[in-house]
Amino acid sequence: MCGVIGYTGGGRRDASSILVRGLARLEYRGYDSAGVAVHTGDGIVTRKLAGRVPDLQALLARSPVSGASGIAHTRWATHGAPTTRNAHPHVDCDERIAVVHGHKFRTETDTETLAHLIEDSPGETLEARVIAALELVVGTYGLAVISADEPGKIVVARQGSPVLLGIGDEEFFVASDASAIIEYTRSVVHLDDGDIAVLTPQGYHILDRESHVQLRAVDDVTWDLEAIALGPYAHFMQKEIFEQADTVRGTLRGRLVFDEGVARLNGLNITPDDCAAINRITIVACGTSWHAGLVGRQIIETLAQIPVTVEYASEFRYRRPLAASNTLTIAISQSGETADTLEAMRAARAAGSRVLGIVNVVGSTIARESDGGIYLHAGPEIGVASTKAFTSQIVALALLGVYLGQQRGLPLEARQELLCRLAQLPTLVSRVLALEPHVRRLAEEFVDARNALYLGRGVNFPVALEGALKLKEISYIHAEGYPAAEMKHGPIALIDAEMPVVFLAPHDEVYTKVLSNMQEVRARGGRIIAVTTEGNGDLGGLVDHQLRVPATAPLLSPVLTVIPLQLLAYHIAVLRGCDVDRPRNLAKSVTVE
Ligand code: AGP
Predict the structure, then answer these.
(1) In whole angstroms, what is the distance from residue 180 CA to residue 157 CA?
(2) Quick check: CB of 286 below 6 Å from ligand 1?
(3) Atom of ligand 1 nearest to the CA of 588
(4) Hey, which of 589, 591, 593 would you mutate to test ligand 1's pocket, going by the most ligand atoms within 8 Å of its Cβ?
(5) Which residue from 7, 3, 401, 343 is spatially nearest to 168, judged by alpha carbons?
(6) What pLDDT does 105 receive?
(7) Which residues contact 424 (CB under 8 A, 6 or more apart)?
(8) CA–CA separation, 102 vs 147, rounded Å?
(9) Does residue 247's CB lie within 6 angstroms of at least one atom of ligand 1?
(10) How confident is the model at residue 103, as a pLDDT?
């Protein structure tokens, strides 16, 4: 949440343009206000405003500022309204210290407080003063500081919020994530909690709070600028929806061993004995990742016969979890930085549980702190509304289900069957994406809806939740997902001719039950959209619209049934003129409680 970037290069390039280009790539982390502070050689000049990065670009065009180093910020407001006054950078009394940070302390104008704290702190160097000031600070942060007295120097501190350094050729960067600097370097250093980094044009070093030098690995970013370019698409969400055949293929790559019926998951770091000892699995996650966890529960319980509970991470962490050594805790997170999921994982570990991470962002905190895990390899997800991560999370959970199932006696044939079905998914996903024109027409019919109900059963109940979340978060239409049978116990009161009802009705063991739920809605005049399986009998008489997806293994059907719902939400939001990639009040990864 919030995006921070900094640059120092000894005059090789103009810091302003690098900072603003980087901010534009970080805007999915928060877009309430933006600002830069540049060391011009004579001192620090700041430019900031409430609004988006393009507004800041326009401000800089009217009153430019240039220099060899600087810091910048795009904000997701927590403390203090999204005003120009509360926009970062914040400076001290004489504007000789400037600070940007992505997080919260416990005072109203926390960042400004920090600038003054550093101003008043003892020390010969900026880093010494920052270290002294942070002694008085409680909370989580990722911050960057510059001083008029030390041109070219940037001091960075991390406590809980993701910060990395970019290592260039006689130029150095700091950023909340690699997307801001990938244009200039692919060599990054992920800072750990408690690290203080000092960047100058001559180099960088990392200290702990006692000013002892720390060594950190330099990692190579595996994706390139193209991965975060919009290409021919109108929005990142649309691009990421259409990437899903490739991203599912990416999650499967090198992990299917058909002959042995094995899912090769080298990063799990779990031995067969460990597996045999597991008697309970707890999945912790938030939002879309929590929905994937619900699908994962059914897959793992079916394939490995291990009881699974799926917990909202934010609730789990304060419930003093009763985990035990034979409990495996799985943290699912696209960003790998969601604070509630990270803390839930830490709480489970503290209670004696082994913890796994199913994560997309390489080098993220959850990935680095878990005992083992599975990377999705779905590439950067920029759209705030998660799409391709969801389908890849389900594929990763299916691979984990086969892996655990193999350790617990799941027959070879059953494993080989599921691996074959997994291998077919990328092709089937492409066929579902071809439904887009049909879904766009449906969107035109439902663009003025005020509410919507999504209903599914079994492994598709979480898809109903996910469909409703997508519509809510990008079109601002109120929507609810429900187990289809649960509808009779209340929500059916909402049904009338105005209420669109989306049913997930793939051909599986509960299909006929879903049909009877459809009849209950039809009897009350509800308008029904059904996502069903090719080759299923014609539902013409029962529903208003049917979207047919190819058949696959019932446990894997959510990978296909969710895509029409992603497209429906996307097109309704576009038709309503919503900012699909930057929906109001949201940010891509929520690194605060
Ligand atoms: C989903 O579209 C949202 N962006 C949000 O619910 C998200 O899934 C949640 O914040 C969890 O994020 P994570 O997967 O990065 O942990």
Answers:
(1) 18
(2) yes
(3) 4
(4) 589
(5) 7
(6) 47
(7) 552
(8) 19
(9) no
(10) 47
